[in-house]
5'-Nucleotidase domain protein (hydrothermal vent metagenome), 846 residues
Amino acid sequence: METIMIQRLLTLLVLLFVFQNLYAGTIKIPNDQPTIQVGIVSSSNGDTILVSPGTYYENINFNGKNIVLGSLFLTTRDTSYISQTVIDGNQQGCVVVFESGEDSTTVLSGFTITNGVVPIDSLLGGGISCKNNSNLTLSYLKILNNESLSGDYQYGGGILILDSEVEIRNCIISENRARRGGGINLENSNVNISNSEISNNEVSKNGRGGGIWSRDSEMLIKNTKINSNNAFHPLSSLGNLTEGGGVYLRNCQGKMDSIEVSYNHSDWVGGGLAIYDSDFIIKNSLIIGNSANLLSNNGEGGGIYYVNINEGYSLKLHDVRIENNYAESSGGGISYYSEIPSAPFKNVTIKNNRSNNIGGGISTYSNLSLYDSSNCSIFLNNAPNGGSDVEMLLWNGATSYEMFLDTFTVSDPDEYHISEISNTILHYNHAVYSSIYSDIYVSPSGFDNNSGTSKEDPLMTIKTALTRIKVDSTNNRIIHLAPGIFSKSTNEELFPMSSRDYITIKGTSADSTILNGDGTTRIIDALKRKKVSFENITIQNGYGYKGGGIAVSGEDVIIKNLVICNNESESSGSGIYVLNSERIDLINLTVTDNISNNNDDLYDGGIGSAGVYNLNIINCIAYSNTPTNLSFATYPPVFPHGGKNTVNISNSNIEGGYEEINIGGDDTVVVNWLEGNIDEDPQFVGGDPFDYNLTDTSQCINAGTPFFVWEGDTLINLSPEEYIGEAPDMGALESDVLISVEGEETLPTVFKLEQNYPNPFNPSTTIKYSIPSVGTRHASSVRLVVYDLLGREVTTLVNKKQSAGNYEIPFDASNLTSGLYIYRLQVNTPDGKGNYVNSKKMILLK
């Protein structure tokens, strides 16, 4: 009997289900009802509301109706109806609301949802709100340009999901704004997102989750792109309150499978993802091009920022690529901080990420597991101040860390690659590059897989030279830069360029070796360095918060023969910024046409410094920088040994003189204005492109000093062969015009190319030539080139316009082999009447 009753009951339920669906109706808008909301009110559970193309200015509420609401896409599968059928909230509130426990048969599909603006304290999302145990599907929607202003939290610019279960399929969620969850905000909910795109959404005012903000929720995200979302603060000083440019998760569980998190940004942490105390799996995914940075040196976890203190929780990465992400402070690719030993990563590649400080690839605790079976690779990441690939902090009493990798950057890593290398036991199967145990040669026309040990086989980029070179206190090295332009566009150069202790980076000449930042980044970032120097280079078109061209600190740092021009900073030191250092020597610099955007007296200057025990400025030109040329501050005001901030200026051309120097703070800054300083127009040659060589009448010619001693230290000691004329010139570019004792030029009457002297020579010699006055007031085009016996060009010594005069050109053959060489002078006058060509031989004997 009981069995019969159960069978009858099941039959009755089936009949009721069939009966209900048999009588489910279709309501057409606007044919059957004038508006969508009227259609909802008149509908019954199970009905379908079909909306014709058009723009409907409405703010609709499902009011607990378990119905399907769709455009003609529902019946035709024609995706063009999605853009043609628009529900416009007219900035009068949330566009679509589910808040009455709608069940899983509820569907919204095939619309563009736009222009929803939620007023303060309404606790709704801008585009769509799902609350109070609603259970529904959102499919084939474009949710665009909505905004939530709801009080302190501003929930979900595009979608708010609270205490609900929602399926999101094939949706585009873009250009929405909020404070938490620019695209989607979910809390205490269960959400599946698939085949969707979440892009160009933003959160501001210490906002979190530009694309997605989630707390206390379960999530499955699959086949979805999360890109170009932004978490920022309009006041840069408060930018360290923003997190998760793409995704922000706290106390969540779930999985991301086959997703792309790309080109998202956070002012503080987690450019791509910021994940706290969550148990999550990310697999088969790409984390690329994200950034966590603010100009004021904040920013961690460019790709991923993960922090966990919960037992049993971890971030599991399987088959994930983390590439080309950037963080200002640490963890360019990923910052992974867990107090609990983690589950191992598997098949994870972390490459080409960058930090402006430490931990270019990964910054982590030793609780991160990288076992032999993990098959992970970390290579070609960059950070200027150590741990280019890995920055490791020992944890829970560990005294060492053992790391197993498939591929690492170099064959013989040191502190530059792994910090701290002394505590790390590295095992790897493959190295991208072999380490180089000698000086290195670099040319924009080279290749980074070359040996790099000769001019004939140079590397292409300085970044690779710094990565491959092996150096220590007993093996100082030189990186030789060939003539040419080093930039991202010409040779894929990476700026800011770091340095390493005990290295000299040396160009061919300041007017031939050019480092160009393209106006996007600082060019040299050499902080906390020891015994380094930069020579014979032009630094131009850099941009940074402090130090548009160069930011440097350390001990025994020498910067000489540099042209530093057309750089820009938001604060101090538009050309060069020197900070917290024992001793920095600036010798024969031309610092000009640099701009600081901060007009505060303490935060400007073509050359700016803060907290430098001994800063020496000798034989330099500082001219035409905006708003001022020199600015010196006191931070920190006291050094460990009780000294003061001391600046010594000698034989330099400083526009405005001593009176125009900005000196900040109290008497802890002492500026010693020594002999030989002038305040004159340097009289650059000019032109387009601008030539920073000195004209023949410049007061900077012969105005430098060949010998300078300060407090027992010899800073300059030049032999006569190392400069032209009676004394070195001020600035980076030594004039090649000979001036008599009285300061009047002796003009020649005929062309002449003299035999070099000495000859034979080792390793340097001088070539003299004369250009007569040939009846024209305009300068002639002059080329002086050195060739080998096979006719191959070795170097170009002169390639510019010169007026009539006597010239002498030094030639340093330190990098050449013994043999016979030919030097050739060619002069073309503007009128063509005085052209001259002549060649001579010289012998190099070593």
